[in-house]
TrEMBL record:
This is 6-phosphofructokinase 2. CDD domains: FruK_PfkB_like. Belongs to the carbohydrate kinase PfkB family. The keyword Iron-sulfur does not apply. Pfam families: PfkB. It comes from the Bacteria. Keywords: ATP-binding, Kinase, Nucleotide-binding, Transferase. InterPro entries: Carboh/pur_kinase_PfkB_CS, PfkB_dom, Ribokinase-like, Tagatose/fructose_Pkinase. It comes from Cellulophaga tyrosinoxydans. PROSITE patterns: PFKB_KINASES_2. PANTHER family: 1-PHOSPHOFRUCTOKINASE-RELATED (PTHR46566), ATP-DEPENDENT 6-PHOSPHOFRUCTOKINASE ISOZYME 2 (PTHR46566:SF2). SUPFAM superfamilies: Ribokinase-like (SSF53613). GO terms for molecular function: 6-phosphofructokinase activity; ATP binding.
Length: 315
């Protein structure tokens, strides 16, 4: 199996709790909070660990919250490479109202990152990546980071002949995609921005996605569509993967779980179709767990079997 490295430049401590009824201007009594190490690449590494696959988790962290984040990752048994920064690692909050089963998610912007700290990340990547490795960059940029940061990461991956998987949004996604990626996982809204159109209907998706692949240095697109599953597009493949219907408890980390499932299968040499199906299974499994908890191995493989059975019965 090839080595997998994950990159998180704006990690977080994800704090989740429940409350019985949310109303304004009142003191709300929450349950005991649960603390989890979070942020795109960190979530990918956590799911890979659940799948018995090792990864090198590269991330930025600072302050007492950064120390806490490192301790949480150590507790999770994650192999980590922490790049210290001056700012404080952010904390996010997810509160579920058990009276309505609605979840409220509060995401903080993260610390300011200096140019020197950005260069430090690129140096670590240049030293850590080897030919044939998979590099997963997932999550938002921190304030102060240049919007072309992931494009710079892409150039390092290409120089090292590593396979770059990018999962972000906004201008960072656009510039990163233009520089090149082995695999992108946009949702429909993000794909619209990548293609410079206001919106994309399902009927238009195949033509627009294939035109994007023709004009951009990207080999694989997996368009996530939430409860509708995902669409796998390559130069020669177009496959819609239906997502199983499950009881959803939380959508926190579902996209990261999907990415983890995909890179897990890619590193094993599985086909693109198997990769996308397993990714949908992981993303769906993540919605079955409460708060900021991610997917469970048992759920993943049960859902993967269901997806395969459905796909094989509807060729």
């Amino acid at each position: 199996m090839k080595n997998i490295l994950t990159l998180t430049v704006n990690p977080a401590i994800d704090k989740s709790a429940t409350v019985n009824g949310i109303k304004p201007n009142s003191k709300l009594r929450c349950s005991e909070p649960i603390f989890e190490p979070g942020g795109g690449g960190i979530n990918v590494s956590k799911v890979l660990k659940e799948l018995d696959t090792n990864s090198e988790c590269i991330y930025l962290a600072g302050g007492h919250t950064g120390i806490f984040l490192t301790s949480l990752l150590t507790k999770n048994g994650i192999h980590q490479n922490c790049i210290p920064i001056k700012g404080y690692t952010r904390e996010n909050l997810a509160v579920t109202d058990i009276a309505t089963n609605q979840q409220f998610r509060f995401g903080m912007p993260g610390p300011q990152i200096s140019n020197e700290e950005c260069l430090g990340v690129l140096k670590v990547l240049n030293e850590s990546l080897n030919e044939g490795d998979f590099l997963v960059a997932s999550g938002s940029l921190s304030p102060g980071m240049p919007t072309d940061f992931y494009a710079q990461v892409s150039r390092i991956a290409k120089h090292k002949n590593a396979k770059f998987i990018l999962d972000t949004s906004g201008e960072a996604l656009i510039l990163g995609a233009q520089e090149g990626a082995y695999l992108l996982k946009p949702n429909l809204g993000e794909l619209s921005r990548l293609c410079g159109v206001e919106s994309i209907t399902f009927a238009e998706l195949e033509v627009i996605a294939k035109e994007f692949l023709r004009t951009n240095p990207c080999e694989v697109l997996v368009v996530s569509m939430g409860a509708q599953g995902a669409l796998l597009i390559t130069e020669s493949i177009m496959e819609h993967i239906n997502a199983p219907t499950v009881h959803q408890n939380s959508t926190v980390g579902a996209g990261d779980s999907m990415v983890a499932g995909m890179v897990h299968f890619l590193a094993q040499g599985k086909s693109f179709s198997e990769m996308a199906r397993f990714g949908v299974a992981c993303g769906t499994a993540a919605t079955m767990t409460p708060g900021s908890e991610l997917c469970h191995k048992k759920d993943i493989y049960e859902l993967y079997d269901w997806i395969n059975n459905q796909s094989n019965s509807n060729p």
